[in-house]
């Protein structure tokens, strides 16, 4: 997020002085690292939690459409970046991979058919296929078909327009561009405190984690893009807009295949349905990954719990974030999210055999020796005040001070996939005097700025064609819907 905002500002106001501070010694070593997430270009093509079923059996696609719209904004900015030297060879960070929704059981099959009926006619989801044939299932997903009992009905929603993204590589390339253009990039530096001055500017105290030396900067604007570390910094800033917010940390693990033969038998990102009580970020999925030109295979996530807000955080993170203004929010969630608590306990007690058994829903002949357990990045779900208590939100939230002098980002998925639209929102909210003058340049970077592609299919096809060609994603072109 910070790298994206910096790149946008560098294009809009190249004369501005920008400094970026990262506590770790490397770029994108936390949640954006390619092995700390599934690398899904979240555009609601396969994620079933973005298209819930209504009581009458119909499917609500409003959230799916919104997320897809926002992902198209990211594709446009990345295409601009490739054409204008901000980014290098696209295959280093983005590659075409089919996105697939998978269910089994009669009731779930009916739901997936209703989802297809709702999405396939929509301009942003053209090319989606509905597959209920076991033979076609086996042809497209041989690893998932081998050993499967097809007396239990299965169904797929298949889209060739999906992507796998190495957000670590993407972030590193954006930061490299910022460094080349004079931005002060300080790794191994931790922001200790933020305090607002009488003139409206911010005093930022930073410490070099190696030498322990501190320095102080003055800035007219601060963006806190610290992942799980954002909430504590926004609390230190003392802005009223952050009051009442809390964070619920959820760790995750994946099984990564060590068998090249298995990796070669699967080429898709396949998402299933979440277990009862599981948070949306815990939807099981079997993912092809493309990292540094090599294919990999992940399954997960297996949820866990730790009080840390960052993978490289401290066990005191959660407790230090508890304040009088968010105490009732946290307590309220503790009462209302008992199913989540039960789910996390069951996940924590899961053995290696239990993890392989869960994998068996996707890979019926899974063997533990073909997989290794890796720890993914830490996610901090947003807890927002609601009435006298609080509510747990799964998504991404931008918090900005009323005067626009500071903003930060909280939450998880769809996160980085919709980072460009989130950062344009920051620009609009925090730089109201400059935004109108920036609009022509922003439209150069994002031609659909301010336009709903859902309402303008011709423009969608134009930007889709441009981004697919520029990002070398032509194999993911729009096609007519099919049913098999």
Summarize the structure in words.
The chain has 484 residues and is α+β, with helices and mostly antiparallel strands. It is built from 15 helices and 21 strands. It has helices at 2-12, 62-83, 106-119, 134-140, 142-145, 167-180, 230-237, 260-264, 317-320, 327-336, 338-348, 352-359, 419-430, 432-445, 457-470; strands spanning 19-22, 94-96, 99-104, 129-131, 154-159, 163-165, 184-187, 189-196, 202-208, 214-219, 222-224, 246-257, 269-271, 285-291, 294-304, 371-375, 379-386, 389-393, 396-400, 406-411, 482-483. Helix 1 (2-12) runs parallel beside helix 6 (167-180), helix 2 (62-83) crosses helix 13 (419-430) and helix 2 crosses helix 15. Residues 476-481 have low confidence and may be disordered. Its cofactor is FAD. It catalyses: (S)-malate + a quinone = a quinol + oxaloacetate. Pathway: Carbohydrate metabolism; tricarboxylic acid cycle; oxaloacetate from (S)-malate (quinone route): step 1/1. It is an enzyme of class 1 (oxidoreductase).
Give structural attributes.
21 strands, FAD, alpha+beta, three-stranded antiparallel sheet, EC 1.1.5.4, Probable malate:quinone oxidoreductase, 484 residues, 15 helices
């Amino acid at each position: 997020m910070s790298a994206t905002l910096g790149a946008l500002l560098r294009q809009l106001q190249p004369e501005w002085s920008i400094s970026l501070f990262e506590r770790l010694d490397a770029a994108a070593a936390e949640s954006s690292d390619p092995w700390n997430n599934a690398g899904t270009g979240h555009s609601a093509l396969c994620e079933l939690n973005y298209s819930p079923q209504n009581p009458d059996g119909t499917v609500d696609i409003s959230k799916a459409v919104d997320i897809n719209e926002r992902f198209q904004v990211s594709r446009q900015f990345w295409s601009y970046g490739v054409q204008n030297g901000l980014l290098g060879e696209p295959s280093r960070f983005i590659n075409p991979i089919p996105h697939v929704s998978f269910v089994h059981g009669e009731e779930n099959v009916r739901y997936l058919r209703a989802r297809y009926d709702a999405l396939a006619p929509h301009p942003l989801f053209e090319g989606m296929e509905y597959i209920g044939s076991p033979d076609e299932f086996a042809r497209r997903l041989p690893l998932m078909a081998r050993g499967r009992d097809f007396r239990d009905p299965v169904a797929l929603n298949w889209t060739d327009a999906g992507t796998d993204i190495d957000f670590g590589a993407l972030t590193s390339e954006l930061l490299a561009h910022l460094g080349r253009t004079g931005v002060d990039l300080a790794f191994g530096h931790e922001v200790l405190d933020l305090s607002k001055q009488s003139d409206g500017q911010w005093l930022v105290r930073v410490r070099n984690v190696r030498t322990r030396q501190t320095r102080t900067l003055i800035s007219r604007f601060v963006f806190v893009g610290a992942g799980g570390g954002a909430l504590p910094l926004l609390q230190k800033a003392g802005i009223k807009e952050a009051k009442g917010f809390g964070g619920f940390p959820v760790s995750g693990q994946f099984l990564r295949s060590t068998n090249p033969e298995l990796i070669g038998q699967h080429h898709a990102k396949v998402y299933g349905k979440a277990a009862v009580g599981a948070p949306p970020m815990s939807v099981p999925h079997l993912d092809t990954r493309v990292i540094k030109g090599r294919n990999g295979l992940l399954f997960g996530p297996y949820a866990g719990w730790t009080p840390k807000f960052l993978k490289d955080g401290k066990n005191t993170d959660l407790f230090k974030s508890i304040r009088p203004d968010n105490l009732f929010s946290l307590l309220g969630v503790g009462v209302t999210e008992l199913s989540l608590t039960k789910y996390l306990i069951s996940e924590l007690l899961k053995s290696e055999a239990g993890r392989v058994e869960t994998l068996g829903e996707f890979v019926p002949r899974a063997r533990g020796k073909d997989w290794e357990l890796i720890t993914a990045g830490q996610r901090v779900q947003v807890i927002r005040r609601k009435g006298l208590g609080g509510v747990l939100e799964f998504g991404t939230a931008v918090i900005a001070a009323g005067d626009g002098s500071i903003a930060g980002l909280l939450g998880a998925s769809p996160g980085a996939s919709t980072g460009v639209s989130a950062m344009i929102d920051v620009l609009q909210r925090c730089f109201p005097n400059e935004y109108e003058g920036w609009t022509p340049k922003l439209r150069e970077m994002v031609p659909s700025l301010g336009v709903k592609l859902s309402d303008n299919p011709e423009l969608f096809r134009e930007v889709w064609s441009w981004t697919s060609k520029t990002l070398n994603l032509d194999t993911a072109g729009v096609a007519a819907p099919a049913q098999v």
